[in-house]
Fold this protein.
Amino acid sequence: MMNAEIHSCPELMELIQRVGFLPLLDSGIRGYSAEEVVDEDCRYVVMDDGGWDWPLWKWKGPIVTEGRCVYGKLFAGKAGFVSRDWWPDLCNWRRSKFAAPAEGSIEETILLTLGEHGSMITRELRAACGFDGPKMRSRFDTYVTRLQMATRILTEDFVYPTDKHGREYGWGWSLLAIPEQLLGRDACRCHRTPEESYQRIYNHLRQLLPEATDKQIRRLI
């Protein structure tokens, strides 16, 4: 299944639905990332004029908004896709592993602020939470990454700045949202126990990635 050679955004959307879980970049498991399954023409390339082109990077937005999947730093702190079909199980397991933010904690402040606004790009959220001092960016990003790993925050879309001609440029900013607001509460519920969800995900990845070690698979989960 992971030997597919992807040439287009729709093909990648279809693959994500088939495999359920797909890191964006190097996962530590050979061949198991969107970057590795796309055709060479879709990978990052530097142009002669110093610019760059990366079709895979540009596909992220349409995949997240149209591809029936979620996206965020969900794999050992690295970004990737999870199909909507598998999201309830991942959410069920991760929220049993990561305790809910304590009252008055920074994590709770982040979630309350994000919930109040509906969705925000990272720098707006950081400023609204008071993390606008020197050297605050990396500290804040650590909290947001932890909340993504805990399935408390997802990327709703990507926002790009535009030049004077209205053309988008740059790497873009993640538009962050709370899963229950983005997907609905029912999409974040699972009738299985957390342990049953874990075993279901493990068995699926074990079959999908026969060459991966148990340690590699458990690290993804």
